[in-house]
Design goal:
Length: 164
């Protein structure tokens, strides 16, 4: 029960933080037409990710295991769930899309919290970030900050539950 309450608290905190960090700022003209009004932070407990999805490239490489018992960032998804692939063709495979250009420090941060940031950043940007109304570094910076905050709250709860 406590973990469900904590998870709901993280979702609420993510929505509030997104609202404060993104929606409450002065919009640029290009943002107005495509900005979403809320987002869902999606994280997965690292140890369970590789049990559920062993074919995940981060699991196959051992990267997820090297991160230890922590939450892994999947993405920040603008809501409603129909807010996907804004102004980009949906059926184009991620491998044929232009990789997302991010500052080196942000790339390092994402590598420490994603299963395979090289693959996930391209997918997450085109599938979800294009609907966020912000530039890729802002989108991933917000996602990384929220995932870190969620981990700070939830990691100890899940570590304790795993030790029982």
């Amino acid at each position: 029960m406590i973990s469900v309450t904590a998870a709901l608290a993280v979702v609420v905190a993510a929505a509030v933080a997104f609202s404060v960090l993104v929606l409450d700022r002065e919009p640029r003209p290009a943002d107005v037409a495509s900005a979403s009004s809320s987002s869902l932070l999606v994280v997965t407990w690292g140890p369970s990710l590789c049990k559920v999805e062993p074919s995940n490239s981060g699991c196959r490489s051992g990267h997820v295991g090297s991160l230890g018992e922590t939450f892994i960032l999947h993405g920040l998804w603008p809501q409603p769930s129909t807010e996907q692939y804004c102004d980009v063709p949906k059926r184009t495979p991620d491998r044929s899309r232009t990789p997302v250009s991010l500052p080196p420090a942000l790339q390092t941060d994402l590598k420490a919290i994603m299963s395979d940031s090289a693959i996930m950043t391209t997918h997450e940007w085109y599938a979800h970030g294009t609907c966020s109304g912000v530039a890729p570094p802002d989108y991933f910076g917000i996602a990384a900050t929220l995932a870190d905050q969620a981990g700070t709250v939830l990691d100890p709860i899940f570590e304790q539950a795993a030790g029982q």
